[in-house]
Amino acid sequence: MRKRTVRSRLTVALVAGVVSCVVVVGAVAQSKNAYIGKLEGPEVVTDPAKFPKTFKEAPQLAALVKAGKLPPVAERIGQDPLVLKPLKEIGKYGGTWRAGFTGPADFWNGFRCCSGPDHLMFWDYTGDKVVPNLAKGLEMQDGGKTWLLHLRRGMKWSDGKPFTADDFVFWYEDIYKNKDLVPTPSSAMAINGKQGSIEKVDTHTVRYRFPEPYFMFPDVLAGSTELAGQMWGYRALGGFAPAHYMKQFLPKYAGQAELDKKAKDAKFDSWVRLFVAQNDWARNPDLPVLSPWKTATPINTPTWTLERNPYSVFVDTAGNQLPYIDKVVLTLAENLEVLNLRAIAGEYDYASRHVDLGKLPVFIENQQKGNYKVHLDPGDYCDLIIKFNLNYDADPEIGKWFNTADFRRALSLGIDRAQINETFWLGTGTPGSVVPADHNKYNPGPQYRKLWSTLDVKKANEMLDKIGLSKKDAEGYRMRADGKGRLRIEIMTLGGQFVQYTQISEMIREQWKKIGIDLRVQEVERSLALKRTAANEQQLGAWNNDGSEHLFTFPLHVFPFEVDAVASSGPLYARWFQSGGTQGKEPEPRMKELMDKWRKAFGVPEKERIQLGKEVWKIAAEEVYIIGVVGQAPAAMGVRVVKNSMGNIPARMYNSPDGKTPGISRPATFFWKN
Amino acid sequence: MLAYVGRRALLAVFTVWAISVLSFAIIQLPPGDYVTSYIAQMASTGSVVSEEEAQQLRIQYGLGQPYYVQYLKWMNLVVRGEFGMSMEWRRPVTEVIGDRLWLTMVVSLAALVLTWVLALPIGIYSAVRQYSPGDYAATFVGFIGLAVPNFLLALVLLYFGFVFLNAHVGGLFSPEMQDAEWSGARVWDLMKHLPMPALILGLAGTAQQIRIMRANLLDELRKPYVVTARSKGLTELRLILKYPVRVALNPFASTIGYTLPYIVSGSIIVSLVLGLPTVGPLLLKALIAQDMFLAGTIVLLLGLMTVIGTLISDILLVWIDPRIRLEET
Predict the structure, then answer these.
(1) Measured between beta carbons, which residues in chain A are less than 8 angstroms from residue B45?
(2) Using CB atoms within 10 A as the burial measure, which of A399, A553, A589, B270 is most buried?
(3) Of B53, B159, B287, the CB nearest to A183
(4) How far is A89 from chain B (nearest CA, A)?
(5) What is the pLDDT of residues A433-485, one digit of tens each?
(6) CATH number of the domain enclosing A258
(7) How confident is the model at residue A31 (pLDDT cuts 50, 70, 90)?
(8) A259–chain B nearest CA distance, Å
(9) DSSP B19-67
């Protein structure tokens, strides 16, 4: 509660300072295309014939080699480098990249910029195609039930120890299967709810076995899933771990008594807390890693510093070991306003996370002074969605309406998306339903963008009249069918997020007056939100559906998928889905059809999967379980402020949590031109 | 006197214990616990924490136990001079606070010194030269200082500092000095960053103290002992400083009780706005994340400081004001 007051006061005050730039706002809307460039990015070279034959390294590493403290660069990289073709040019070594972060909870920040990303497979710059990354390749066998992962020969951890199949088996046998460390098996390791296994074929080959065909597997390794590298190390997940280092923190190898003492000395409550703290890429500078930069001063100090990994397997087409930039320094910003003002003042070299779309005019105005350029990277998803809690039962009448398709559709038709887009997105967004951008492979067709999502007050009123809500009170609000007064519904919002959910909901409240719906907006603190959704007390919830552009690896905002959600579209349905039908509540036929199609897609070849994906979105758009408001806009990390002298910066990049943007543009290839 | 101090000290210990119980209870009041806020945070970044995992976490952090057990566990740590592990920072609480405590004290002391250096002479001047142009000017500035919320002033100064002076935005160090070892250059860098927060933090206090000093002194100046002293031929300056000012200082001494906790926490809102790495924002974040041990320790520390401050001001009052007698009843 306290935070809210502080923040809203701050916002009010800053808005006052920004009044002078109001004129610029109009200009932004008109020239939004000037800031949205062409989608481009570096490419992974997979043809060994095009690999560089010799390697070069940063001067300070060369000095260490000369002093005999490091092996020669070719030895450190190994026989199968991960070759990146930089976007524009071969860069040069040196310099520091300055940015901000907001504290230990902001770990995504460093993973997005500096982890490489260290996924085994990854996306090309379009976010569409899976390409080899840390692994050299992935081979399907046995009709999708077995997958062979080929590792790079001679590849090493940041401490110089070899990265081999043993690190996968160690993770699977000693970490993943340890119930203390991983109480719930990961859905990423399962197909149709049945767990797979990992085994070693030889030093450089890993075999994954699944009981049923798992055609989605390459996408799962590429996306930000729980098999996607050391990001999830702090939850003992990630798909692999440095066996030679982490063994000392396991009872099996270190001995229980010994380890308990170690945990106690380090002031941890249990060995499990110690283990996950030591296995944390962001927290433990000693942890061997595979990323181009590695943590030097950890995330729980005022400055999170990352330095080059001397054993980085990433190289450019000329054979220069990446990254080009020596050091990344993220300084702690006590609040987002200071962070934004620092970015405006040009004190950050590259910033997009936490950059506030509402301040876009000020950013543009100060481009010259701050010596930076503003780019917009709209996402392929909705920046604002409204979820109906289909399981709401505290008030049966309201629950009934939420489960009436025409009620949901009418509410969607009652929203003036153009007004919201102009006011909160400065006209940079696209109004429409929940479906992802037109070029997304799962998009069911352009007609679904507008389905039930244009402003049509007349039709909305007719629909509401027809379903039995025709009686109105003196103020023009619709009355409940059970005669207990006015029909009041409530939306729950969170403050301090990338999107101003509360303020936008207030505007929707005004708009819904025209269709006789009385909406109450309630902003709550995060934990309370969670508690209320878990207790099934939420009616409507506002959120964004970022990630849903990768429908199968990030389905949280497409249908009731997670039980503990800050905005839920049905906790009982989610439980039913997660438990395979043994708990929770069985969904209505259309929802069940949607869930079935989604689940089925994991076990079928890509072409069929795309078809299933389209059908999932079709049902979602037709049934309006979730109202889409404004999307394909840059509100979530899509306003990018980059110094003019930084090289290899794409005009536009794919903005997605699955692509760890800007990770998808390979920041290891960014460099300082002077 | 000694018995008096002893009795007060004993009461203080009891008060601190009561504060520890209260602070622990307050932290338990909001819905959920650290694991709930952790799950919420995970959920907002798109990852799912299962119920089994949440349960496991609660066991590991000892959150499932009854409150009194948790309290006793914490107290057990506190009496040994440890304060537990911060759940969010995953570092011992002492380290997390220690990082910031010194800087907080530097900033707060600077603000305090500024307040007193400005407020005392101006207050005295205002009283002695009542209704003079100087008094009006001081009153005007004083009321403005009282009326302007200091976080707003902070924002305005921050913005103008950036627009007109090209000043570094927020914080206490330049980026290049952030992590440097302590050296002459770093101290100088800190000195350069200090005036703005000190001024903003000190302004409201200054205004208030000017008014208090002026009002108290005006009361005293009309009393017969002043006239007597004057008639005995004391110089005006000596007269005023020696008698009425000493009496008028009472409120300053009695506010020390609130001053000490302020020195260790700094102002939460202003520190947030200015991005100062002080204890205040840390407390705010700890409360939001329900980081029990960290929040509890800070609240306890603040309580302890209030108690010590009150004790000091009681003793000071006895010393400054001879009219206060210790009566054994």
Answers:
(1) 108, 657
(2) B270
(3) B53
(4) 29
(5) 999 999 999 999 999 999 999 999 999 999 999 999 999 999 999 999 998 99
(6) 3.90.76.10
(7) low
(8) 15
(9) HHHHHHHHHH-SSS-HHHHHHHHHHHTT----HHHHHHHHHHHTTTS-H
Q: How confident is the model at residue A3 (pLDDT cuts 50, 70, 90)?
A: very low
* Contact check, Cβ <8 Å, B272/A335: yes
Rounded to whole angstroms, how far apart are CA atoms A668 and A47?
Answer: 20
Nearest CA in chain B to A105: B88
Residue A275 domain flag: no
CATH assignment at residue A99: 3.40.190.10
Structure tokens at A89: 């040019």
pLDDT at B65: 82
Ordered DSSP codes for A40-65: ---EEE--GGGS-SS-B--HHHHHHH
Give the tens place of pLDDT for each residue, B216-245: 899 888 889 888 888 888 888 888 888 888
Cβ separation B170–A224 shorter than 8 A: no
- What residues 225-264 of chain A have any CB closer than 8 A to a CB of chain B? 226, 232, 235
Mutate one of B36, B77, B80, B90 to test the A interface: name it (highest A CB count within 10 A): B90
For residue A478, the model assigns a pLDDT of 96
Domains of chain B and any CATH numbers: 93-320 (1.10.3720.10)
Strand A382-388 with A540-543, pairing: antiparallel
Number of domains forming the structure of chain A: 3
Question: Is the Cβ of A660 closer than 8 Å to some Cβ of chain B?
Answer: no
pTM, 2 dp: 0.85
Residues contacting residue A177 through CB under 8 Å, at least 6 positions apart: none
Q: What is the pLDDT of residue A30?
A: 54
Which amino acid, B202?
A: G
Q: Which residues, other chains included, contact A627 with Cβ-Cβ below 8 Å and sequence gap of 6+?
A: A385, A386, A388, A408, A411, A412, A415, A433, A434, A453
Query: Is ipTM over 0.90?
Result: no
Q: From CA A647, how far away is CA A645, in angstroms rounded?
A: 6
- The residue range of the domain holding A184 is 118-265
Chain A residues lying within 8 Å of B171, measured CB to CB: 331, 338
Q: Nearest Cβ partner of B43 from A9, A300, A565?
A: A565
> Cα–Cα distances in Å, from B99 out to A266, A333, B106, B187?
18, 15, 13, 16
On the question of pLDDT at A348 being above 70, the answer is yes
The residues, any chain, with a CB within 8 Å of residue A122's CB and separated by 6 or more, are A44, A130, A131, A132, A133, A222, A664
Does the CB of A18 have a partner CB in chain B at under 8 Å?
A: no
Whether residue A274 is contained in a domain is answered as: no
pLDDT value, residue A23: 47
Candidates A104, A235, A526; nearest CB to B40 = A526
Interface test with B, best of A6, A304, A334 (most B CBs within 10 A): A334
> Binning pLDDT at 50, 70 and 90, where does residue A25 land?
low
CA distance A335 to chain B (A): 6
Residue A150 lies in a domain: yes
The verdict on residue A284 lying in a domain is: no
Is the pLDDT at A18 greater than 60, yes or no?
A: no
Q: In this complex, do A338 and B89 lie within 8 Å of one another by their Cβ atoms?
A: no
Q: Is A475 on the interface with B (CB under 8 A)?
A: no
Between B207 and A609, name the one with better pLDDT.
A609
* A360 and A427 housed in the same domain: no
Interface touch B44/A10, C-beta < 8 Å: no
How far is Cα B101 from Cα A173, in angstroms, rounded to an integer? 45
pLDDT (average), residues B158-171: 75
Q: What is the mean pLDDT of chain A?
A: 91
User: Are residues A331 and B276, on separate chains, in Cβ contact within 8 Å?
Assistant: no
Amino acid at A408: R
Cα nearest neighbour of B50 on chain A: A184
User: Which of B49, B55, B90 shows the shortest C-beta gap to A277?
Assistant: B90
